């Protein structure tokens, strides 16, 4: 198996990531104020970015512990390369196998729950 130039050769996680990762679509949107008095915002989605990720389904119990305070139907854990992390932070929606997922949003602004693991990030996304 050939080694990808962006990552160090010989690391088993890099080889596993290069062979098993699937494509996901990241949608970034521009917000425009539709009604300034009501403070309504319209989202205009830009064309999607395609990145590779390892995808793991979370059970209801795992989602309850990892995404505390958020009632979810489905949740997934993504392992993405560190070069794609900034795109995930800007995302408004993430499409995996035709299903739409979101990061976590609170009153302070848009956040996403993640953990840095060297060359990779673990990101939690959920479906409403």
Shape: globular
Low-pLDDT regions: none
What proportion of the residues form beta strands (DSSP E)? over 45%
How many helices in DSSP terms?
Answer: 3
Terminal Cα separation, in Å?
39 Å
Strand tally, please?
A: 11
**Mean of all residue-level pLDDT scores:** 82
Tell me the structural class. alpha+beta
Question: What is the topology, as strand order, of the major beta sheet?
Answer: 7-6-1-4-5-11-10
How would you characterize the largest beta sheet?
7 strands, antiparallel
- The percent of residues in helical segments reads 10-25%
Question: H/E series, N to C?
Answer: HEEEEHEHEEEEEE
The value of Rg in angstroms is 16 Å
List the helices and strands and how they pair.
Layout: H1 12-20, E1 22-27, E2 29-35, E3 40-45, E4 49-58, H2 60-66, E5 74-81, H3 85-90, E6 93-96, E7 99-101, E8 105-106, E9 109-110, E10 113-117, E11 120-127
């Amino acid at each position: 198996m050939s080694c990808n130039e962006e990552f160090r050769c010989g690391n088993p996680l890099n080889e596993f990531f290069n062979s098993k990762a699937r494509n996901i679509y990241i949608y970034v949107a521009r917000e425009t104020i539709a009604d300034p008095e009501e403070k309504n915002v319209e989202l205009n989605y830009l064309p999607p970015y395609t990145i590779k990720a390892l995808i793991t389904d979370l059970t209801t119990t795992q989602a309850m512990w990892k995404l505390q305070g958020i009632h979810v139907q489905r949740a997934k854990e993504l392992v993405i390369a560190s070069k794609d992390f900034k795109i995930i932070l800007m995302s408004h929606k993430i499409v995996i196998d035709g299903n739409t997922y979101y990061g976590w949003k609170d009153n302070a602004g848009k956040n996403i729950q993640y953990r840095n693991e060297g060359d990779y990030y673990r990101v939690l996304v959920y479906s409403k």
